[in-house]
Amino acid sequence: MSRNMRPLFFMVLLILESAFLPGETVAPFVMPQARFSGMGGIHAALGDDFYSLFTNPASFVGIKNQFSVSELTVSMYGPVFEILDLAVNKGSLKDLDLSAGIDVGGPLSLGWVGRGLGLGIFNRFTGNASVDSGISLDISGEIFFVGGYSFRVLEREKHVLDAGLLGKGFFRNTLDLQPSLVFDGSMFDNAASFKTILGLGLDFGLKYTYGGNFTAALACFDAFSPALVTAYASYDDFRNGNALGPGYYGTIDPRLGLGFSYRVSIPFLDRYISKFLILTDYRDFLDLFSVIPRNPILNISIGLELVVLEKFSLRAGIADALPAAGFGIDLSFMKLDCSIYGRERGLDPGIDSVYAVDVGLLFRY
After folding, report:
1. 6-364 adopts what CATH topology?
2. CA distance 210 to 297
3. DSSP-assigned states of every residue in 79-122
């Protein structure tokens, strides 16, 4: 076995072994990204900017140097306007059956990608509320560190094969609340459980490019990602160091995705069209082996991106069997991305669908 192929063999063994690790399931760290949510989610074969830290670590070797100073991306789903109306008018949620949430990435988004290396530090805040006979509110805040390396395995004429690996760590606080059913200022009086989660992880990726236009990529996220969970009865117990017991271990479920991209070239329009990409992915093959898997259709994603005059981007896609669309504007000193898309929280299409809106301000140079 050649020296360059040994890391690939190690990656495959670790993926197969870690796919069946026992333990409590812990949610992965994923930064919201308006560009990708408008084109069917992340795509393993698309790694052309700083966000390749979350798409495929094999991409680092082919990216021009890019430095991220900061970003602020806000993602909201659910009946936002109805909730704001209730808050303003101090209405009651007793008769409503709804769910809503917010996911905020940044403003900490500091890092660098290029020359085969990828480094970054991020923060994220999430909040999810659901109302049936009562209201429950889950809040989490976390910080995430990541560092990876990619290398060229093969380069012959039109054929290029890259591989990469990524190490990461995160610290997360989660708080479950049972607030008042009326927005009267006492919303957070009834705090429930509080948890801290300290996790580590490894991602692996392969990326094959033919002729500069066609790309096929394989990415395994959280191939080996254990986490230490410590539970407290309340936030006050956390501040006083009174845990419910010794910490226990959980794992982040590994995800194995396969993606393809094709860059369309239209010679007589190349003067105006800077980029035209068609992408398709199957996002998680390992889910097929779950005890209760999602419908395979939900793991298929399709995306389109059209860049005009290197400044304006138009995007469309399908993910979770629901449509998505978005646009982007490059203002040189800042990039603005907006998108609207559907999310399926059930195991089959149309069971529990919601729509979300993402807005992102990116400061990358």
Report:
1. Porin (2.40.160)
2. 28
3. -HHHHHHHHHTT-B-TT--EEEEEEEEEEEEEEEEETTEEEEEE
CA distances from 222 to 111, 196, 247, 333 (A): 20, 19, 21, 33
Q: Is the pTM of this model over 0.70?
A: yes
What tokens does 365 get? 């140079």
Cross-strand bridge partners of residue 123: 143
Q: What percent of the chain lies above the pLDDT cut of 70?
A: 83
Give tens-digit pLDDT for 266-315.
777 777 888 899 999 999 999 998 888 999 999 999 999 999 988 999 99
Q: Please name every residue paired with 75 in a beta bridge, in sequence order, or none if there are none.
A: 103, 358
Q: Which residues lie closer than 8 Å to 286 by C-beta, 6 or more apart? A: 19, 253, 254, 255, 256
Best CA proximity match to 90, nearest among 207, 191, 187, 235: 187
Distance from C-alpha of 261 to C-alpha of 36, rounded to nearest angstrom:
14
Query: Do 26 and 229 form a contact (C-beta atoms < 8 A)?
Result: yes
Residue 100 backbone class (left: φ over 0; alpha: ψ -120 to 50; beta: rest): beta
Sequence-separated (6 or more) residues with CB below 8 Å from residue 314? 305, 306, 308, 327
Would you say 124 and 145 are in contact if contact means Cβ atoms under 8 Å apart? Answer: no
Three-state SS string over 1-19 comes to CCCCCHHHHHHHHHHHHHC
Number of H helices, E strands in the chain: 4, 17
Give Cβ neighbours of residue 175 (< 8 Å, ≥ 6 apart): 138, 139, 140, 191, 192, 193, 194, 235
Q: Which amino acid is at 41?
A: G
Residue 151's CB: how many other CB atoms inside 10 A?
14
